[in-house]
Each structure stands twice: as C-alpha cells, then as structure tokens.
Amino acid sequence: MNNRYAWLEEEWRQLDQHSLARALHTVEPMSKDGGAWIHVSGQRLLNLSSNNYLGLAHDKRIVEAGMQAAQTWGAGGTASRLVNGNYTLYEELERQLAAWKEREGALVFANGYQANTGVISAMVGRGDAVFSDRLNHASIVDGIILGRANHYRYRHNDLEHLEYLLREQRGGRRKWIITDSIFSMDGDMAPLTALVELRDRYDAMLMVDEAHGGGVRGEQGQGLCHEAGLANQVDVLMGTFSKAFGVYGAYVCADEVVIRHLTNKARSLIYSTALPPFVIGSVLEALQLIQTETWRRVAVRRNARLFRHLLRLRGFSVEEGDTPIIPLAIGENELTLQYSRKLRERGIAAVAIRPPTVPAGSARIRFTVMATHTRADLEWAADQLKGIRDEL
Ligand code: PMP
C-alpha cells in the first residue's frame, strides 16, 4: 500500500541517525524555590536550562497581578490590537516601557519571534541590505527572509568582516545592522559601542535584540545597551518578557516615527490577536520588580561568575564572564546527548543544544543560571558534571 507518510519516516530516520531528533519532555507543576528546581516526568531536577534568570516566573505578586487583570478584562485578547484588542492595560505598559528605556515610544508584540519577524520585515524591503551577526537568533534570520532584503551574515562579533561588507555595499539602498546583545547560545556580548560607530560611519541603522540582556543588565534592568550608555543611540531596541521577566511577550522601543511605522506595517502585530490581559497584567508587575529588586540582578551575575569558576576549577573549558548563559562546548551531537542524559539521571535538567540551533560540529550543553540558585546547588551540579566526564 502506498504510504503517504514515508517521507516523514525518512526525515525522522535521518534526524535520528545524526542524533538530531528532538522530543518534548513533560514538566509538572511545582516550585516553591523560585523555579530553581522542577519536576520532569516525576523526577525532581535542578533547573539549569531556564531563561527565568531572575526567578520571577513563580512570583506570587506577578501571578496575582495577572489574575486581577484577567478578572477585570477577561481571559482573551479578543481581537487584534488594531481592531478591539487595544486595552488600556497595553497603553499603560507601553508608557512604562518607553520611560524605563528612555525612548519616545514602545510597542508590545505577542512574543520575541513575532517581534523580530514583524519589525524586521516592516523595516526592510527588496534591495535593502541587512548585516546580521552569524550567531543571531533564528527569529532575526526569519525576519530578514520575510523582508526580502539582501542578507549579509558577518562572522560572529567580527567588526572587520562587518566593515568589509558594509564598504562593499556602500551607496546602496537602506542598510541595517542587527545583533543580539547577549548571544542566546554562546552567552557572550556584542561590541555595541563599535557597532554604533560603524552604523554612523556607513549611514546605516542599528537594531539590538535584548532578549537575554533585558532584566539582567543595566542599572534598572534595561539591558546591555543602557549599561553601555547607548540607550538613545540604537535605532530599534527589542526585548522579550519571556526570559528575565518570567512571563511572555515582547516589545520594541524606538523613536515615535518608527513606532508609528510599525503600527501600520508590522504584519505580526496587525494580523494577530492581542495578548491576553493576564499576560499584560503580569508583565506590568514584573517590570516594577525588575526595577526595584536589584538583588536579583546582583545574584544572577554572582551565580554566573561562580558557576563558570566552579566548572573551570574542575578542568572544564568555559569562558570567564558574568552573563547567565554558560555553554559547555562538546562538539559531537551524540556525545552531547549522552552528557544531557547522564545529567538528568543525576538530577539536573540541562539540555543538549545541537544544529541547526548552533553551527554543525558545535553541539553543547547550554547551562543557564538563575538568581534563585544557591551556591550549594551550583557546587553540587559542577561535581555531577565532573563525575559524568570521568565516566565518559
Ligand atoms: N531573540 C532571542 C535572542 C531569543 O533567544 C529568543 C528566544 N529564544 C527570541 C528572540 C524569541 O523570543 P520568544 O521566546 O519570546 O518568542
């Protein structure tokens, strides 16, 4: 009999053969400890794979604020913001975001993926040139594809390569430079000051994705651009509510003229339903806590330095730094999976990151630390990892 799905079986076989297959794991409700520990399929695991950097996802005040918003406004967004979904809650959030980021305006999107695809495809068009760091997030790449611009990928954080490409395209149509602030799979930082200089020298525009910088950097958690004193220099500042905020959603901050353009042209905003009121209510509370509970930012940076130090003490090669993303380079897909499986057997959730999320041959365990991990948690985890290396 003709099997209509034979091609899917074949695609699966290929993935499996190269240790690239992915599957979903079931996480059960719990968490009285700021999300540092989770239950997966009945097993209690130290969570070293969460983007909940500040431990806010389970904060009672945030959950309560969300519930109050839901009680006032209902469960659903009910329509696009351009139809009837633009609750006053949204406007309050955008006002607060713009003030926090010291920019003229802000615009909230459903999530980071939709913000990047919507914003980039609205800002670029055929014949424009986008210069994008090779390690930028997939949603940036997809936005460039949707915008039909010419896509120039520069070597990771390589300013000479970027300048070479900019020089080659001199005199063309509009030019955009786009970068993550903290790179999602490598945990290193973009050279923002130099990127602003190149933007000026080549008459380009600059967009920075602060998904991993928001909440954890900057005096009030505004992100790495603020920390570098560049808040007003970057044309489009993008960030998410799904990581340090512990909730969901995303935003951009920019000049009013940019916000107006996006409101008219960003298709992911126009043709998609507004976020549910629960989410906006929760994000408003999280934004307050991010600004006031400075100890969380201090703790996550301390833990980031500490875990790197503990791994290095045990002979692992990790870069020094204080961002919460700590990749342990392994290389081969199968070996990386083995590390991840063994970590889990020993009570640690730390996922294997494989291509196409990272370049071929650079599979890794991506550890992330949180403000709510204790020193004992991290020491224990580093010991487990050493034990696994000795076994393998
Ligand atoms: N940008 C970066 C740098 C990210 O790491 C992510 C999330 N992994 C996103 C955008 C997408 O954000 P979201 O999960 O809110 O869709």
CATH architecture descriptor name of the largest domain: 3-Layer(aba) Sandwich
Q: N- to C-terminal separation?
A: 45 Å
Low-confidence stretches: none
Largest sheet, if any? 7 strands, mixed
CATH secondary-structure class of the largest domain: Alpha Beta
Give the amount of beta strand, in percent.
Answer: 15-25%
Bound molecules: 4'-deoxy-4'-aminopyridoxal-5'-phosphate
pLDDT averaged residue by residue: 95
Please tell me what the overall shape is.
globular
Structural class: alpha/beta
Strand order of the largest sheet: 4-10-9-8-7-5-6
Account of the protein in words:
A seven-stranded mixed beta sheet has the order 4-10-9-8-7-5-6, with helices on both faces. It has a four-stranded mixed beta sheet with strand order 1-2-3-12. It contains 14 helices and 14 strands. Helix 12 packs parallel to helix 14. It folds into two domains: 133 residues, Aspartate Aminotransferase, domain 1 (Alpha-Beta Complex), CATH 3.90.1150.10; 233 residues, 3-Layer(aba) Sandwich (Aspartate Aminotransferase, domain 2), CATH 3.40.640. The chain is of the alpha/beta class and 392 residues long. A hairpin with a 2-residue loop joins strand 2 and strand 3. The model has no long low-confidence stretch (mean pLDDT 95). It is 42% helix and 16% strand. The site of 4'-deoxy-4'-aminopyridoxal-5'-phosphate (PMP) has 14 residues, from helix 4.
